[in-house]
Amino acid sequence: MIYKCFSTIVSNFGAPHVRRLAVKAIRIAALMTPAEPPSSLRREVMGLTFPSPVGLAAGFDKHGELYSSLPPLGLGFVEVGSVIPRPEPQRSQGVDEVVAILSQIPRPHPIPIGVSISMNRNTHPDQMVDDYLACLEKLWKYADYFAINLGVRTGPDLHMEEHAGTLRKVLTAAKASRTDLARITGLRRPMAVKIDCNRGDTTSLVACVQEYAFDSLILSGYVERGKERHALEGLEQVIKSLDGQMPVISVGGIRTPQDAVDRLSAGATLIQLYSGIVESGPLLPRRINSHLSSQLVGS
Fold it and tell me: CA 150 to CA 136: how far, in whole Å?
């Protein structure tokens, strides 16, 4: 309640200020009694163990600096990034900075670290493949899984039909690189593809990801208040189309414990938080875990 009051006041100064408040609150909350998720929530997905199905979405901890503060909150995994090869103001400090941070985190990781990778805004479509591969190669040893982010609104966007050929080149190259890197290093790294359902033709994009048989699909998209039912219907349709061939991670508009229950009940295997933590504070994951655990007990 106190956090929400502060968040409401700070929101008058813009979203970056609210996020900074959330970051400070997370660091403080991590010093409290660790909120270890109930064992009943543990899930095996993509060959990895997730202590809880509740994770932190990419975009919040862009470079991995918050990682040590996240397991005590009750989160089951975190996705760092999106990471791009070269630094861009207001977006990313670049892959080398992320490598420097993640390389300092001891293994085994208490919760899986996913890394979302993408391309620089000024990268020509012919060179987009190189951007993704550069991130994969440099981060291979430090991530537990990778998420291929298809682009940004203010730059090249592989969601769009005009970039369909480039998208296929990126997906083909990413899978080939994964095979090579696994052989060279002996390290297996699952790979997901992230699709924003508010951009491009979601049906065609999902079919493309399904054709390439990736390990998971991350389905994202901004969800307006009052339109949660519409988002759930879209999620259910995608999951039905996949026919159990790959797990789906749902992200976007999960603000309450009931939102989490609804997404998982719709068929999502894992969920990711962003706006919910910014708006409600760092205790949201433990509230969701408690609610999910009680639902399992009562079922």
Answer: 14
